[in-house]
């Protein structure tokens, strides 16, 4: 975060869903002032003090963009450590006794993007992470200097949220997504609540199973097992991936697909026809034996 304006815009998104009026009411200030604060005017110290007290924000982060956004709490540190331990069970050792340890996981996986870019009017720019930049994104996703070097775009009807665009790398999601096409993802804040089964997500992860930008269908088993299961659409050539929360950096839900090839329904239709023909053939063979 390079400016106070960007940080305040992030707070408006985080605490009020991008609603300037709601955020203004929380602080007992005018909506016009909030609009100015997220676009061009730096707030007075008294307003910054209100924001810091109301939302328990770190002054160092609010003024300088350094450190964590929220004030550190010993209770939070202990809680996070307990959750990390709770999700470390191997698949073979999971049982009903383990599930009680996973109950606090919801707080642990509620995260927010560390860098948000805006234009001169205070609107979100959609940052593009092309294939050639994805190796660096794994370590640079929280670095404003790195993010500013990536190309940005304004896209129609992409608003009232935080979005990022990623380039598809490979054929694991064929025929749904094609290699070198693009997907636009919306930031997912609460992993337990907001990740829905079998929807497409961009998961930025670093683990022994896989690392980098992963675009897959997801099964959300955070409450039950402490895991996300990532599934390819091309299951003949690619395998499922299991990730634990401490291996995940970011999650974005796919909202828009930009590509030059459309899925061919004839492929699925031909498979169904072949299956029907095979069944009829087997039925005829069985009748002949009888």
Automatic annotation (TrEMBL):
Gene3D superfamilies: lambda repressor-like DNA-binding domains, Umud Fragment, subunit A. It holds the Pfam family Peptidase_S24. Residues 21-62 form the HTH cro/C1-type domain. PROSITE patterns: HTH_CROC1, SPASE_I_1. InterPro entries: Cro/C1-type_HTH (IPR001387), Lambda_DNA-bd_dom_sf (IPR010982), LexA/Signal_pep-like_sf (IPR036286), Pept_S26A_signal_pept_1_Ser-AS (IPR019756), Peptidase_S24_S26A/B/C (IPR015927). Keywords: DNA-binding, Hydrolase, Protease, Transcription, Transcription regulation. PANTHER family: HTH CRO_C1-TYPE DOMAIN-CONTAINING PROTEIN, PTHR40661. This is Transcriptional regulator. It comes from Faecalibacter bovis.
């Amino acid at each position: 975060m390079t400016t106070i304006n960007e940080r305040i815009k992030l707070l408006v998104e985080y605490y009020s869903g991008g609603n300037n009026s709601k955020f203004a009411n929380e602080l007992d200030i005018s909506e016009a002032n909030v609009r100015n604060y997220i676009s061009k005017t730096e707030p007075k110290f008294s307003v910054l003090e209100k924001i810091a007290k109301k939302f328990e924000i770190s002054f160092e982060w609010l003024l300088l963009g350094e450190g964590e956004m929220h004030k550190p709490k010993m209770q939070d540190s202990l809680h996070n450590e307990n959750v990390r331990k709770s999700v470390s069970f191997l698949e073979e050792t999971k049982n009903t006794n383990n599930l009680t340890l996973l109950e606090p996981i919801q707080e642990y996986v509620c995260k927010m993007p560390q860098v948000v870019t805006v234009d001169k009017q205070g609107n979100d720019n959609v940052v593009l992470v092309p294939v050639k930049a994805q190796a660096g994104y794994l370590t640079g996703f929280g670095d404003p200097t790195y993010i500013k070097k990536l190309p940005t775009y304004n896209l129609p009807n992409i608003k009232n949220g935080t979005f990022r665009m990623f380039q598809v790398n490979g054929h694991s999601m064929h025929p749904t997504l094609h290699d070198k096409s693009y997907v636009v993802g919306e930031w997912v804040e609460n992993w337990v609540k907001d990740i829905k089964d079998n929807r497409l997500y961009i998961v930025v992860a670093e683990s022994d199973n896989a690392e980098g930008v992963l675009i897959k269908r997801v099964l959300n088993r955070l409450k039950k097992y402490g895991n996300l299961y990532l599934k390819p659409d091309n299951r003949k050539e690619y395998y499922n991936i299991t990730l634990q929360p401490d291996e995940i950096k970011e999650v974005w839900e796919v909202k828009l697909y930009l590509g030059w090839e459309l899925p061919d329904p004839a492929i699925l239709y031909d498979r169904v026809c072949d299956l029907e023909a095979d069944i009829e053939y087997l039925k005829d063979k069985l009748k002949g034996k009888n």
